[in-house]
Amino acid sequence: MKKLMVLLAVVALIVGFGIMRAEAANTVDITVTVTLQDISVTVSPDAWNMGIVAPSDTKDNTGAPSIATNGGNVDEDLVIKGNNSTAWSLGDGTVGADEFAVWFQDDDDTGITTLLTSSNQPLIADLAPSGTFTINLKFQAPVSSTSTDMQTILVNVTASAS
Amino acid sequence: MNDKGNKIKVKNMKNKILFGLILFLFLNNNLFAQQEKQVQEERQKPSLGLSVYPGGLLIQKVKLGETYDLYKKTGVALHIENKDGNPHTYIIDTFKPSQVGNKKWLQGYSEIPDPAWFWVESDEVTVEAQSKKKVKMFLKIPDEEKYYNQHWTVTLGVSGKPEAGHMLSLAVYPRYQIETESKTGLEERPEGLTGIEPGNVVFENVPLGKKEKKKIKIYNNDTIKHNYTITSRVIEVEPTREQIGVSPGHAWIPNKKWVKPGSNFKNIFTSFSFSKRRLKILPNKNKEITVAVKIPKKKEHYQKKWEVLLFIEPDEGRPSFVRVQIETEKIAGEG
Predict the structure, then answer these.
(1) What is the pLDDT of residues B29-77, one digit of tens each?
(2) Position B244 pLDDT exceeds 90
(3) pTM for this one?
(4) Is pLDDT above 60 for B334?
(5) Which terminal Cβ of chain A has fewer Cβ within 10 Å, N or C?
(6) Pairing state of beta strands B110-111 and B151-160?
(7) Residue A7's pLDDT is what?
(8) Are strands B175-180 and B56-62 parallel, antiparallel or unpaired?
(9) Can you name the residues that pair with A144 across neighbouring β-strands?
(10) Whole-angstrom Cα distance, residue B234 to residue B228?
């Protein structure tokens, strides 16, 4: 019995030592480096009150557009996308019953001609820190509406590093 | 006597009224000035403003199978700043860059196979007006051999939750780079169409003026053959651009030509190394190449820790890279 216990103790010691050696070899540890300080965007104003719009009528915000500003310290790309309202759908450029359309002017456009969709599309690339971009929008109302409630149409502007 | 007393009383009354009027004007003016200042301050606050720190992060030497609390491990947390005058709730999520319409991310990195391997402590955070909030970030890469030697990018999305009455909603999507632990002698093919082994090649105690060599393996994990161009590269530092970061404790090598991809062919060209190496690899095959380092013998080259990237660019598809790290010898006689 005594011999067996001694043998087990020796085996246990060897196993323990083996494990310790493997762990000692594995001393590489994670490193984390901040490569860009912050990404920041501001927009003002954030609302465009169109008031009452007749069916199929168009309106634009060029009189009081929203201005996006790169408030960070890195060059930024801005993308834009639209959403349905509670009662209307964002259309494919042709308005219909409960279907509206919105266009925006990107950095390459000479007018408000790019159709806003529910997917992100480039608004401007390589906007320098403190740089600004004017968000010009044009809205066309649906041909008819089943709802008489005021509709809020949400537009998303996203910033990422260039 | 009465007349004189009355006159004094009237005079006192007038003085009191005058004093009261002056006091009223003084207080009103101050109040007006304060209100005007508040109006100016309100005008200067943007309607919507969002800032996210860090804008870029390089996480290296990630061990497989280990759960990392980045804040606990390194002190780095996500900071969300609400820069406008209203409280907002932000939704936080992780994505492959292509999932959020991001077509350009750093060359050399692939999209993380599963963005869920990188997560935050709370996927919805409310930040008061003109305030910041700190959110912890976590990382765990599955313990599978194919995930050694990987260079991935993940997009962290911080998006304002839609709010009634607001037409615009802001989001910031920083991209973070993750490099897993470097390892050789793997039995499983590495993940990715272009696999590399190891991810990091380290030359220690390099004697100046002498050539040192190590090997790297390149895997073509595609279904078609590819021609690869292998070049040494250092990154021109531009603080306002997203770039591949140099490893901590290292500087970019002063001359990338001191590191050359070579050939393993055992012929008269064995001793040749080229600044640009071309290689053809058949589908599901791999090839080994030599990386040769020779640092000129100059006093200023002793005890340096440099890094250079060995870019492996297929004829089609995204490139990969190997980090080559060089520690030059110490000056003789020094400890």
Answers:
(1) 665 566 555 545 544 455 899 999 999 999 999 999 999 999 999 999 9
(2) yes
(3) 0.82
(4) no
(5) N
(6) parallel
(7) 33
(8) parallel
(9) A97
(10) 19
As a whole number, the mean pLDDT across chain B is: 88
Within an 8 Å CB–CB cutoff, is residue B177 touching chain A?
A: yes
Is the ipTM beyond the 0.90 threshold? no
A146/B contact by beta carbon, under 8 A: no
Contact B310, B231 (CB under 8 A): yes
Two structure tokens written together for A6: 């001694």
Q: Which residue, B56, B172, B151, is CA-closest to A35?
A: B56
Q: Point out the least confidently predicted range of A54-58, A81-85, B170-174, B268-272.
A: B268-272
Instruction: Please answer yes or no on whether B48 and A44 come within 8 Å at the CB atom.
Output: yes
Indicate the Cα dihedral angle B12, B14, B20, B24, nearest 10°. -170
Plot region of B130 (φ>0 → left; ψ -120 to 50 → alpha; else → beta): left
- Under a CB-based contact definition with an 8 Å cutoff, are residues B308 and B298 in contact? no
Q: Which of residues 199-258 of B touch A (CB under 8 A)?
A: 239-243, 245, 247-248
Which among A135, A136, A60, A138 is positioned nearest to A103, based on CA atoms? A138
Q: Are A81 and A116 in contact (CB under 8 A)?
A: yes
Question: Can you tell me which residue has the tokens 């020796």?
Answer: A10
Sign of the alpha-carbon dihedral angle for A114, A120, A121, A124: positive
Provide the pLDDT for residue B38. 52
Radius of gyration of chain B from Cα atoms?
Answer: 32
A42 touches chain B (CB under 8 A): yes
